[in-house]
Amino acid sequence: MELNRRQILAASRGGLAALILPKFAFAADRPDLGAIAAMRGLRFGSAYDREVMTDGAAASLLKSEVRIGAIENSLKFDWLRPDGPTANFAAADEVVDFGLKAGLRLRGTALIWNDWLPDWLKWSSVADRRQIMDRHIDEVLFRYAGRVTSWDVVNEPFFPLHGREGGYRKGYWFDALGPDYIATAFRRAAKADSQAELVLNEAFCEQDDELGQSVRPLFYECVKRLKADGVPLHAVGFQGHLKPHLPFDYGRFADWVASVAELGVSVKITELDVDDSQLPADVAARDAAVAAQVTAFLEPVLKVEAVKEVIAWQLSDKYSWYGTADWYPKDRPARSHLFDAEMKPKAAAVAAAAAFRASAAR
User: pLDDT by residue (tens digit) across 128-151?
Assistant: First the structure.
């Protein structure tokens, strides 16, 4: 399924907005998506990071809209240990403290990830890398125990295009421990913080292209194997970086998500946004197409009872990661999120609210 030219043209004439906005118009600039989701037993959240320390509007938006704060970067290995194995927690502590004072349930992202690792790590021996991984998990989870209550222990374990046997993503952790780095990381995390929710997070699964279809069975079998081996895996996360220019069938994706949940895990959508890089340049048309993509995704996915959380990957276009990507068009700002750069709700926020309202109670 893809947005066709007729749908995009209709959106540019206000077709989607005309259908959605009158019925679900907000009484104020702040829709409080967290409260709307909570009425159905869902938890809505967003990624955030150091911008909330200096941007009062971004901080206010986060406080008003979400119940979960996913710390976008400051708890990642390369941000904590850019120059060597000794961590600097100063910035991370500030970001965590902000979320706690705001009353948010906090998530740590990408505890162990084979991408974006600092260069110094590649000069370490295999034995050293194993010790460094253990140290990282121990120090981070012990420091934030009881404060950061959910962790993406392993992020994006699979990427078949790297050509590794088993379809695994290449990287320093995989090179040191092989496929066992996943189970090792989860067991270590459980010892470091026995109360934390431990999550396996993956990308691409929502796509119905060759990549998405190749990752799904690999991820399913991994979860099945981890659960059978008694590994403390509590939940799975599917990122949800929606790409309307690629094939998608969100109904089929939702059916697959339900099958994964049957393995004994709860489900999160962890990084929801829309890649608008190939949508029309016209702002009205683009906003409507982004909203249509949010609706098309959330409606079937929220029918899966095991889906307990939906987390946006930033609320506002102002802090979109798309705009910093080297492949994103340089002649226009990204409009990939639920709120615009002035922190005002867009049609995508209306679409998310409508999907939350229409979902079955948990």
Answer: 999 999 999 999 999 999 999 999
